[in-house]
Design brief:
Blueprint lengths: L1 H14 L1 H5 L6 H14 L28 H15 L1 H11 L3 H17 L5 H9 L2 H5 L9 H15 L4 H18 L4 H17 L4 H22 L14 H20 L4 H22 L12 H6 L15 H24 L5 H18 L7 H7 L1 H16 L4 H15 L3 H5 L17 H13 L1 H4 L10 E2 L5 H7 L13 H12 L5 H7 L4 E4 L4 H9 L4 H6 L7 E3 L9 E5 L25
Parallel strand pairs: 1-2
Antiparallel strand pairs: 2-4, 3-4
Helix pairs in contact: 3-4, 3-24, 4-5, 6-7, 6-9, 6-19, 7-19, 9-10, 9-11, 9-18, 10-11, 10-12, 11-12, 11-14, 11-17, 12-13, 13-14, 16-17, 16-18, 16-19, 17-18, 19-20, 25-26
């Protein structure tokens, strides 16, 4: 398995070496993660995760993460820095760090299929994992956000559910759940489902009590330790979006109740079911009475921010609201995984493995159902489908290989593998109906134009010229904030992080509202410059929301007199103005030149 992993590492580093060289952190969270590591290495406190480069006028940005994922990135930087310098060490640390949790993911899946399918089936599981495109994107170089580590915890959870050694299995599930929750709450539904499965196994079989007993102790103790070591200053209050005292209380109480039930362990199955139901009711009732503020969405954002931003995030929408070409490749393997797990359960119905297979089938079905809530569940759903798909392939492919006809053996087994592994969905992708957007006047697809702007404004070569100006606070788009502070020495105003809803709404109001309302908002945040990226995805929202708003006027070339142009290189995708607060607001005539007209050459 380690040799297989090294091959994947070599392939990824060769394939993405250009991205690593240019530090192409395309996701806002990846940029913010690097800034968090930089701040820690520069002396920021262990429990202080506030980002002071965003919205400095208001004291910085509150980030709800933990330091766990910072550790391997910081370690790689410190290890490489003496040999290749700080800048190169950062680039290669960001390239290598996402590949570390891939070893844990591979370990969890290999253990699961060895225990449930066959000792030699681990290689087939790894090959199928390579076809899980949504999952593998979480381990690609530069994807330094925490999702890869949480998927690794989920893979170990599945291995624990499949473990025939009950105490070890319970400890594996409990500790991996505690680690995942300490990193973030994204996998909370899966952790809750794993705990429910362990309780149901005990209800079904009193002999499984040892698994539940150790699980309860591991979950309670692991979350308590994780909170003590990694909960930031901001997470030590009653918030609902991280491992705060709210969820720490829930996990400790749940683990304690399960441990207590394991000590009782009545012989009657119906009594065990009643006790498990009572324990669940106590947890739910206590949560509702003690933390009523968390009964809604955990982000606790205002209604306005939810309607204008959070509810409209593409990855937070269910799979059926996405184009078929997007949803089909994600949904294929979970369906195959459910079928394979059900077949595995049926084939093992007279053995001890039947309960483990039933747990895997239930877990896989739950992950697939999560796609109906948010498409961001795709990586987890695909990964959890690997054991079921492996079991199906291990059953079907040998049948073809035993046939007398060479054509059936060769082409039949190859076709069966493509279907059972879900790889056929990738082959069909070019032939699926296109979800391209409308076409503009010049015949160019509007989404293509937006994608080009998103890529151009994220490049180092586009951002670095901004460092010619003295350090300043730049008022820019919400999604530009993290990238701006990562590549340049400037400060930003906002980033897409829900705890800082006031700053996000300020940017929305400034760009969508009237031109006369922009300067008061910019003044509150002490912004000195206005930086925009024409045609960036976020800007299309401002124009659609209010075509006559401030950004809509800028896009049509109506620039107020209090914006003083700042020259940038000729091919820069940005537009930059100095904000003049000393000039009266005089309406400007409508210019015939649009905002993306050619610019003057830079000053020499």
């Amino acid at each position: 398995m380690l040799l297989f992993w090294l091959g994947v590492v070599a392939w990824y580093l060769w394939q993405r070496q250009g991205n690593i060289q240019w530090l192409m952190l395309t996701d806002t969270d990846d940029n913010m993660r690097l800034m968090q590591v930089r701040a820690w290495l520069a002396g920021q406190g262990w429990y202080d995760l506030r980002q002071y480069r965003l919205d400095p006028a208001m004291g910085g940005f509150d980030i709800h993460w933990s330091r766990i994922v910072d550790l391997p990135i910081a370690a790689l930087i410190l290890l490489l820095k003496p040999f290749i310098g700080v800048a190169a060490a950062e680039r290669w640390a960001c390239g290598l760090a996402p590949l570390l949790p891939l070893t844990l993911t591979m370990t969890g899946l290999c253990l699961t299929v060895r225990r449930l399918v066959a000792p030699q089936a681990w290689l087939l599981a790894l090959i199928i994992l390579m076809g899980c495109t949504s999952t593998m994107l979480m381990y690609a170089p530069l994807r330094i956000d925490h999702h890869g580590w949480q998927l690794a915890c989920l893979a170990l959870t599945v291995a624990g559910l499949a473990d025939t050694r009950r105490a070890r299995g319970g400890a594996t599930v409990g500790l991996s759940s505690a680690l995942s929750l300490t990193i973030g709450l994204e996998m909370l539904p899966y952790c809750a489902m794993a705990g429910a499965i362990i309780a149901l196994r005990w209800v079904w079989d009193a002999g499984d009590v040892r698994r539940m007993q150790v699980y309860g102790l591991s979950l309670a103790g692991g979350t308590a330790l994780g909170f003590a070591l990694f909960a930031s200053n901001a997470n030590q209050v009653l918030r609902c979006d991280a491992l705060t005292p709210v969820w720490l209380s829930v996990m400790v109480a749940a683990g304690t109740l399960l441990f207590g039930l394991s000590l009782l362990n009545p012989a009657n199955r119906w009594v065990r079911l009643a006790l498990a139901a009572l324990a669940g009711a106590v947890i739910v009732t206590g949560f509702a009475l003690l933390f009523p503020q968390c009964l809604g969405r955990p982000e606790q954002v205002s209604d306005e921010l939810a309607q204008t931003w959070l509810n409209r995030v593409r990855e937070a929408k269910p799979i059926y609201e996405h184009p078929f070409k997007t949803g089909f490749p994600i949904a294929v393997l979970p369906v195959i995984g459910i079928l394979g797990a059900l077949v595995g359960t049926w084939r093992a119905r007279r053995s001890e493995a039947a309960v483990a297979w039933a747990a895997i089938a239930l877990f896989t079905a739950f992950a697939a159902a999560m796609l109906l809530w948010q498409i961001r569940a795709g990586p987890a759903a695909q990964m959890l489908s690997v054991p079921g798909a492996t079991a199906l392939a291990w059953l079907i492919i040998p049948w073809f290989l035993r046939q007398k006809s060479m054509l059936v053996r060769v082409f039949g087994s190859a076709l069966a593998f493509l279907i059972v592994s879900g790889l056929f969905a990738g082959l069909l992708l070019p032939y699926l109906p296109s979800d391209a957007g409308k076409t503009g006047k010049a015949g160019k697809s509007i989404p293509d134009k937006v994608a080009q702007a998103n890529a151009a404004c994220a490049r180092i070569t586009s951002l670095r010229p901004l460092d010619m100006l003295p350090r300043a606070i730049m008022f820019t788009h919400v999604d530009m904030g993290p990238r701006l502070i990562t590549i340049t020495h400037h400060y930003g105003v906002a980033g897409p992080y829900h705890r800082n809803g006031d700053a996000i709404l300020a940017v929305h109001h400034a760009f969508s509202g009237p031109a006369r309302g922009f300067r008061p908002i910019a003044a509150r945040h002490k912004a000195q410059y206005l930086l925009i990226c024409p045609d960036m995805a976020e800007t299309t929202v401002y124009r659609a929301r209010n075509p006559n708003g401030f950004y809509g006027q800028l896009h049509r070339g109506q620039v107020p007199n209090w914006l003083e142009p700042v020259a940038l290189p000729e091919k820069s995708p940005f537009r930059l103005w100095r904000i003049r607060y000393d000039l009266p607001d005089v309406p400007e005539p409508v210019s015939s030149a649009r905002i993306n007209a050619p610019k003057a050459p830079p000053r020499r």
